[in-house]
Amino acid sequence: MVPSEDAAPLLDVDQILADPGVRIVVCCGAGGVGKTTTAAALALRAAERHGRRTVVLTIDPARRLAQSLGLTELDNTPRQVKGIDVETSGGELHAMMLDMKRTFDDVVLQHTDPAKAAEIFANPFYQAMSSTFAGTQEYMAMEKLGQLHARGEWDLIVVDTPPSRSALDFLDAPARLSRFLDGRMLRLLLAPARTGGRSMFSFVTAGFGMFSKVVQKVIGAQLLTDLSGFVAALDSMFGGFRQRAEQTYRILQARETAFLLVAAPEPDAVREAAYFAGRLGEERMPLAGLVLNRVHRPAAPGLSGADSLAAAERLAELGGHEGTVEVLRAHAALAQQAVREERVAARFTEAFPTVPAVSVTAQPADVHDVDGLRTIGAAIGGR
Asked: What are the tens digits of pLDDT across the range 147-185?
């Protein structure tokens, strides 16, 4: 058994999924640890086993989730998943994939008139920011979560956080975007629109002279003009960005939200999970537990790696069956890997001994269908 289960209370995921007071489950962690599969498996289990009307929001460049759920495609609109076993439970499962530019466009349309929206959409700086600006994807994931929550259509929203370099980007993106929008440079660029509508270039040239020349040398006159137009067009929306970010933050702090850390028994992934657990504590956000994916367990746990390897070497010396020797060596390698994984996992559970944890055995192949998601869900749920 993995020490994370020995050192920490066992995570009861089914209790979380069945609780009507829990309306949001956020799966977070480093990239490549199985967040997408975990989120989809939890959403499927909530619908099939607990009868909840569930939507899973994923940010998945490989689009594996659509394939796993039998959908031809996912987009920015929730699509109902057909053919799952909800006849007894009465639940529903819907799935969607974040389109950050479409989400940004929807925000613009919601908070501006059509003419102003068209001006914003045509701005080169907006086109770049809405598609590639660092932190936009994470911020728009928060936006979409806030939109889904406000609609009130779902018993449960399961969020697969973006595959960021750092899992903390999901929590930090709204604050970073707000700082960007509130920055001294942008407030300076916005000044022309607030002082009579003169062009940015003429205003800066008249008022700041040398500063104008320096800025143009650094970022270019055209980009400066595009940026000025973008800032002026979005002026009325700045407060809305901050307000919605603050509202979503409060939702994430509420009892209706449960954060599940997802990690693999690898040093970087466990370290990232520990950082995130500490940050959630600082932000007073409810950490429900740790899901440790891709854990290796030997078939004969009573036979240590050292004993298995010694037996293999002795049998080889005696001219024993070659197949048996290879099996013993393979078991030794797996047992040694399991010990290494136990030590890595213990770094988290020793730092956060009260955080419930559950481990999921490594699967022989990638999950690519609903049955595979059910298997993962059952492993996380403990049955």
From this structure: 899 999 999 999 998 766 566 777 777 677 666 655 555
- Tell me the sheet residues that pair with 258: 25
Q: Ramachandran region of residue 83, left (φ > 0), alpha (ψ -120 to 50) or beta?
A: left
The sign of the torsion formed by the CA atoms of 25, 26, 28, 33 equals positive
| Interatomic CA distance for residues 348 and 341, integer angstroms | 12
- Calculate the CA dihedral of residues 131, 238, 148, 106 and round it to 10 degrees: -50
Name all contacts of 120-123 with Cβ < 8 Å and 24+ positions apart.
120/230, 120/233, 120/234, 123/226, 123/229, 123/230, 123/233
Collapsing DSSP states into helix, strand and coil, what is residue 301? coil
CA atoms within 13 A on the CB side of 77: 1
Q: Is the pLDDT higher at 83 or at 357? A: 357
In this prediction the pTM is 0.82
Rank 197-206, 208-217, 219-228 by mean pLDDT and report only the highest.
219-228
For 293-331, the pLDDT digits (tens) are: 999 988 888 888 888 888 878 888 787 778 888 888 888
**H helical segments located in the chain:** 3-7, 13-18, 35-50, 64-68, 100-111, 114-122, 124-132, 136-151, 169-182, 184-194, 200-208, 210-219, 221-233, 238-253, 267-282, 305-317, 322-351, 370-381
Q: What's the rounded Cα separation, in Å, for the pair 168 and 278? A: 11
- How far apart CA 17 and CA 11 sit, in angstroms, is 12
Residue 138, Cβ neighbours under 10 Å: how many?
A: 25
Q: Beta-carbon neighbour count of residue 182 at 10 Å?
A: 12
Q: Return the amino acid letter for 321.
A: H
- Confidence at 273, pLDDT banded by 50, 70, 90: very high
Torsion of CA 98, 100, 103, 109, to 10 degrees: -160
**Strand ranges of the sheet holding 53-58, from the earlier edge strand across to the other edge:** 79-80, 92-97, 53-58, 156-160, 24-28, 257-263, 287-295, 357-361
* Residue 355 token pair: 């955080």
C-alpha 251/C-alpha 285 separation (Å) is 9
Is 16:288 a contact under the CB 8 Å cutoff?
Answer: yes
pLDDT of residue 190: 52
Distance CA 117, CA 147 (A): 19
